[in-house]
Design brief:
The complex is a heterodimer of chains A (about 160) and B (about 210).
Chain A lengths: L1 H11 L16 H11 L18 H15 L4 H12 L14 H28 L7 H18 L1
Helix pairs in contact in A: 2-3
Chain B lengths: L2 H23 L21 E2 L7 E2 L9 E6 L4 H15 L6 E6 L10 H7 L8 H18 L5 E5 L3 H5 L7 E5 L5 E6 L4 H17 L2
Parallel strand pairs in B: 3-4, 4-5
Antiparallel strand pairs in B: 1-2, 3-6, 6-7
Classes of the chains: A mainly alpha (about 160), B alpha/beta (about 210).
Chain lengths: ~160, ~210
């Protein structure tokens, strides 16, 4: 019985000969390279925190297929992005465009930096005014002179 | 600038950012963005009609009437929740036609993956005819089992029309006016609440317009 089982299992062995080399993902590596470069900056609209390059969602696959085709039609990166934005809005791009309603987003951090710099500057200026004059009062000078002369005398 | 001013500015900034993030977190991520297609002409297409040999449909066929385009598929689980609502709506008095756009009706047994299908289908015509028959069969069976709310069903086998409509998932529903302009888009299941409060009043308003 055991032998028979062994034999039948051995018969399965040649099946591994069917194993094939992993197929190339793309027929055209140049197109694929551009696709990946583009898709990394694009959002998968179904699973919104994933880039279009890495998403396995059905819609993302469709979008990649469409982009591949646009690349083959020699469309520029900007034309491809416009194609997507006209359907999915600016949301499809990870980097929001510089527009009136994204002004705060783009300039906000710099405005905050500026406010910080103004506060820092005014504080430093105020501190400078508070520190007493470096010079000595007349009385202190006299005393210092006396001390200095004293040491001179002893040295002599 | 004295210490009080600085504290006031600091507190104001913290309060502002807390408010913005608090508000932001309450928003539904699906509604993050309005479709840029709202207010625009519904993208044109021509697709085969289910169970009508040689029948085709274009959005232009609906000029002059308000209608809805509902994206569905037999493999879509959320559609099963939405479907009875569509059936109820379609049977109600004065309902506008609902056109069913079947999105990528591909085999559920994975015998043919979307990728393979795409490879066979650089354009619609070259999908293996056998697969189209199977997709049609499955859709018809599903509709006779779950009831058919659609005026007609069109088959978007490779999902290209879906892309033109800015589809983010299935189901999705569009309300299109007499001039063929998209007036509303529901991402995900049409809820009773949205049907009653948003879609029905909008349809009534659009129908009143010439």
């Amino acid at each position: 019985m055991k032998r028979l089982l062994m034999l039948s299992l051995l018969c399965l062995l040649p099946l591994s000969a069917w194993a094939d080399e992993a197929k190339d993902l793309a027929e055209d590596p140049v197109v694929e390279k551009r696709l990946i470069a583009l898709a990394t900056d694009l959002r998968c609209v179904q699973c919104q925190n994933e880039s279009l390059a890495s998403s396995r969602a059905g819609i993302a696959q469709d979008m990649r297929r469409e982009i591949r085709e646009l690349i083959k039609q020699d469309k520029s990166d900007q034309e491809i992005k416009d194609w997507l934005v006209s359907r999915y809005g600016d949301f499809v791009m990870y980097q929001p465009p510089f527009k009136s309603y994204t002004l705060f987003l783009w300039l906000g951090p710099f405005a905050l930096l500026l406010v910080g710099a103004i506060i820092l500057y005014s504080q430093i200026r105020k501190r400078r005014n508070l520190t007493p004059e470096a010079g000595l009062s007349a009385d202190a000078t006299r005393r210092a002179d006396a001390l200095l002369n004293m040491t001179k005398d002893t040295q002599a | 600038m004295n210490r009080t001013t600085i504290i006031v500015i600091g507190v104001a900034l913290i309060a502002f950012f807390s408010y913005v993030s608090y508000k932001g977190m309450q928003r539904d991520p699906h509604l993050l963005t309005d479709s840029p297609l709202i207010g625009k002409q519904a993208p044109d297409f021509k697709l085969a009609v289910l169970d009508k040999p040689d029948g085709t449909f274009s959005p232009a066929d609906m000029k002059g009437q308000v209608w809805m385009l509902n994206v569905w598929a037999t493999w879509c689980v959320a559609c099963r929740d939405e479907h009875p609502r569509l059936v109820r709506y379609a049977r109600s008095a004065g309902a506008v036609p609902v056109v069913g756009l079947n999105h990528k009706e591909i085999r559920g047994d994975f015998a043919l993956s979307p990728d393979q299908l795409i490879r066979i289908v650089p354009d619609q015509k070259t999908v293996s005819p056998q697969e189209i028959v199977l997709a049609d069969q499955r859709s018809s069976d599903w509709l006779s089992k779950h009831e058919n709310p659609y005026a007609l069903v069109i088959m978007d086998i490779d999902g290209r029309v879906g892309l033109d409509y800015g589809l983010t998932g299935v189901p999705e529903t569009y309300v299109i006016d007499k001039q063929g302009i998209i007036r509303y888009k529901e991402v995900g299941v049409v809820t009773d609440e949205n049907l009653k409060n948003k879609i029905l009043p909008l349809i009534a308003e659009l129908q009143a317009k010439s």
